[in-house]
Amino acid sequence: MAKTSAYQLQKCDVRVNTICPGLIETNMTGETFDYARQRGTAGKIGQLNPLGRFGVPEEIAQAAVFLASDDSSYVNGQNIAVDGGLSASHPVAPGRWV
């Protein structure tokens, strides 16, 4: 959608980008995090992510602030993954190179 919209809105002074978040602890994912904490497996949340952790809302907000700023004036039609590298690491096999 970002790529098509950026092309269709060319010369309109409109930039279109998307933020693709990874596993972020929010109200929407709260039950998953709570369940893991109850089971004592909270340390495993985000373990397959190359950064080895889950994200927080502030990290998504920082990407949004960047895209809204003049610092990103030449960024257009991009899908920006803010997922700690998870999308760059598929397929994942813990402890192995696949």
Summarize the structure.
By secondary structure, the protein is of the alpha+beta class. The chain has helices at residues 2-8, 30-39, 57-68, and strands spanning 18-21, 79-82. The protein is 30% helix and 8% strand.
Written account of the structure:
The chain is built from three helices and two strands; from the N terminus they run αβααβ. The chain has one domain (2-88): Rossmann fold (3-Layer(aba) Sandwich), CATH 3.40.50.720. The protein has a two-stranded parallel sheet with strand order 1-2. With 98 residues, it is an alpha+beta fold.
Report the portion of residues in β strands.
5-15%
**Helical amount among residues, as a percent range?**
25-40%
Order of strands in the sheet with most strands: 1-2
**Helix-and-strand structural type:** alpha+beta
Q: Please, how many helices? A: 3
Pattern of helices and strands:
HEHHE
Q: C-alpha Rg, in Å?
A: 17 Å
Q: Quickly name the level 1 CATH class.
A: Alpha Beta
| Envelope shape | elongated
Overall mean pLDDT: 91
CATH level-4 homologous superfamily: NAD(P)-binding Rossmann-like Domain
Number of DSSP-assigned strands: 2
CATH T-level topology: Rossmann fold
**Cα distance, first to last residue?**
31 Å
